[in-house]
Amino acid sequence: MGSPNFKPTRIFSPHHHNSPPCTRTHQIGALLLVASTFFLVRLFDHLFSTCPPSSLNHDHTSQNFVHFSDGGSLSWPQIGYGSHLSLKIYVYEEDEIDGLKELLRGREGKISADACVKGQWGTQVKIHRSLLQSRFRTRKKEEANLFFVPAYVKCVRMMGGLNDKEINSTYVKALSQMPYFRRSGGRDHIFVFPSGAGAHLFRSWATYINRSIILTPECRGIGLIRKIRVPSIHGKILSFPGMLKMGMTKRGAVTAQPLPLSKRKYLANYLGRAQGKAGRLKLIELAKQYPDKLECPELKFSGPEKLGRMEYFHHLRNAKFCVAPRGESSWTLRFYESFFVECVPVILSDQAEFPFQNVIDYTQISIKWPSTRIGLELLEYLESIPDEDVERMIAAGRQVRCLWVYAPRIRVMFCNARNIVGTSEKSTAVSPISRDILAAQSNYC
Questions:
Q1: Which of 14, 75, 157, 392 could form a disulfide with 58 if both were Cys (CB 3.0 to 4.6 A apart)?
Q2: What is the pLDDT of residue 357?
Q3: Residue 10 CB coordination number (10 Å)
């Protein structure tokens, strides 16, 4: 299971009658073996683990420190691997596997990476490009620890390059030609799905890559987005940040400079389309009742009510709190945007999970509010928070926001998480996602 051509050998035959009976003694022995194994594993974890509980401040002796050019820094637990790794990642070339070119460029090969890197799904291109330049990259399959399968299927689908049926069949065809995928059942292969649909862009993902490493902004969406029962998942699903517009993260940002709290017009805002979603519709109605506290215009794709990019961010920065309700799925890009206009994100998405939760204490930089309690109670709670606390949360967010950035060049950016896959030539420390990917190897069932 987990590869297109692999058929597991039958272990139990209905016609085999000569096996010894399973007695009570066997059962007790098996139980003791399981119990002893469990306690031994816990003992070794306690003795050798160097990963402390999550927070923004850790003991320096067991941490790596990531420093950003805007003055922020973040401690990162070593997770038992130390500060340096001999990690090798093989990146498949588009011409070596039949089907990969279609997954990257569409059936006619006319969709370019430069076209796909734009917009909130550009992470599929950014991660691929960073791995191509990474110091962890190897061109020898036999020495690789991990294998990256590049695909821009969200972009290709949106631009009409492949339909859902073609995406599915093309993935299946490509996987059938990967002997290293079959060797491990896909355990050491990495796939990126950059939208809220997650791995469901590949309809048969639960059959073919359910043991693989899946990078997506939507951890919980794997099982919830389609409301289906997902078969046994033995792989590792890792959350990564959504794609921010580069104008937000440049030094001397041209998009929108943060305003002092005293000059902000609104207590909170939500700038987004309703899309028929209950939480968003409630916010719009609440804004009509309390227009001096909550700004919540119903945005349009076109016409006089459409907000341009500059207008959008100028509105976003004009409140102390930026409300981020769920949309088609649990995650929302507004959560990440809020850190760069320096408003405190208010998460109205009960199943939302965010990246690097083993390091970042999200209670220090954001507020999570039940989506069933959107009303005056929410506004009263936000209004009760002193400005000093708001400033403290904004300052804490400033320390970690660089982890949301896929920056092309260090020298022109506020901050840079390009070494997210080890592209920094000067740094020898293991980068956040590289470390999490490696940790995934020890999390298979």
A1: 75
A2: 81
A3: 8
Spatial CB neighbours of 132, under 8 Å, sequence gap ≥ 6: 91
What gap in Å lies between CA 337 and CA 317, rounded to an integer? 10
Neighbours of 5 (CB within 10 A): 10
Domains and CATH numbers, the chain: 89-241+419-440 (no CATH), 246-416 (3.40.50.2000)
- Residues 170, 102: contact at Cβ < 8 Å? yes
Angle at 110 between CA 104 and CA 111, to 5 degrees: 50
Q: What residues have CB less than 8 Å from 143, skipping those under 6 apart?
A: 88
Structure-token pair, residue 59: 């003991």
> What separation, in Å, do the N-terminal and C-terminal C-alpha atoms of the chain show?
14
Q: What is the pLDDT of residues 251-290, one digit of tens each?
A: 544 457 889 999 999 999 998 877 788 888 999 999 999 9
Q: Which two tokens stand for residue 17?
A: 């009658």
Q: Which residues contact 311 (CB under 8 A, 6 or more apart)?
A: none
**What does the pLDDT read at residue 313?**
82
pLDDT value of position 151: 96
State mean pLDDT over 199-203. 88
Residue 303 DSSP SS3: coil
| Cβ atoms 209, 230 nearer than 8 A | no
Helix-, strand-, coil-residue percentages of the chain, each rounded to 5: 40, 10, 50
Contacts of 28 (CB under 8 A, 6+ apart): none
Report the relative pairing of strands 146-148 and 189-192 from DSSP bridges. parallel
Report the alpha-carbon distance of residue 73 to residue 66 in Å, rounded.
5
Q: In terms of pTM, does the model score above 0.85? A: no
Which comes out higher in pLDDT, residue 200 or 55?
A: 200
Other residues' Cβ atoms within 10 Å of the Cβ of residue 95: 8
- List the one residue out of 199, 203, 212, 122 whose CA is nearest residue 158: 122
Local confidence band at 316 (pLDDT 50, 70, 90 cut-offs): confident
